[in-house]
């Protein structure tokens, strides 16, 4: 019995491919477009909220010039509260937006998987037919036809099915590439979602702490400017007394510092710990620092200060390990006027970095961090005249995490004592 080329097969392949692809594309595209519309709306909402935050931050910075005014301090705290509450709204919208992105990627992954299975079926059927045709030589195929025209049509159909097979193999390969890309994007989005979840919890804690600070200030001053001025004067005295203690302790360390064990000045090994950088106080003058290029010659400030509203994410300037952290405000009956909440990271290049005056610490001792990880949030803890971040850089071999057991103001707290030669100018490495 004569085997005839199944022309209907070619037609069925085209129809199946076109109908199935058109239906699934339209269905998936509708879902993706709907999700994209929701994503776009969330992005717009986030931008509008970020404009509010920028305005709050501007007003807080302007009030910082009136640091000795009780009314300005209270208003600053109130604005900070609003700014932090808006931070929370931004994070909540980012979480919703990220979930929508994950749903959208899920739809695309499902579509790619269906497309891969569809192409596999068509390829299998095409190969089966090609194998069947392969049992005949070209002369046999020509002789099996009633006319040369029929034979020519059969050859064209063979060419068509070969082209269709090639197209589906190419589609299959591209679908696999796209599927892998979508899976990686989904994994990245899930990591970002997890980070946003932790950030949201942190922001809620900071709001509570800021409210407590506001209540404490009102209670201590009884809403009276004279009382507030006295409070500031007392705190300044405590700060200076503690600094004298630290200077005395550090002068006794006399640790040899090998300059060959730290990066060269200007090497740029560190990144800025904040997304927005505005320096409000530079590095002061120490014996070791005079050898570095950028020197603040009017004082002895052991780091640099950045303007940063309370609740601003603080990032690790370089990968390393958390060697210590502390909350100095919890000791000495509120008289320990120093770094407040602080974190120190030891890096593997001979440097250590300190992040101080934080509102919240987001890491624990011995935790490994990588460059850019959020380790805490800026604040107004410790000896400050307004919210900011203090960044200190040290030669690691010259710093000692010390329990200040003999301190008059900070007895029992941890503090990063350092030989004066170990203090480095952060701008030499940023």
How are the elements arranged and paired?
Elements: H1 7-63, H2 70-133, H3 138-143, H4 148-221, H5 225-251, E1 279-281, E2 304-307, E3 313-315, E4 320-327, E5 341-346, E6 351-361, E7 368-369, E8 374-378, E9 388-395, E10 399-403, E11 414-418, E12 423-424
Antiparallel strand pairs: 1-2, 2-9, 3-8, 4-5, 4-7, 5-6, 6-8, 6-9, 9-12, 10-11
Helix pairs in contact: 1-2, 1-4, 2-4
Question: Would you write up a description of this structure?
Answer:
Residues 32-94, 162-189 form a coiled coil. The protein is of the alpha+beta class. It folds into two domains: 7-206; 243-428, Glucose Permease (Domain IIA), CATH 2.70.70. It has five helices and twelve strands. It has helices at residues 7-63, 70-133, 138-143, 148-221, 225-251, and strands at residues 279-281, 304-307, 313-315, 320-327, 341-346, 351-361, 368-369, 374-378, 388-395, 399-403, 414-418, 423-424. The strands form two sheets. Strands 1, 2, 3, 4, 5, 6, 7, 8, 9 and 12 form a ten-stranded antiparallel β-sheet that branches. A two-stranded antiparallel ribbon has the order 10-11. Strand 5 (341-346) and strand 6 (351-361) form a beta hairpin. Helix 1 (7-63) packs parallel to helix 4. The protein starts with 6 loop residues before the first helix and ends in a 6-residue tail after the last strand. Residues 1-7 and 292-299 have low confidence and may be disordered.
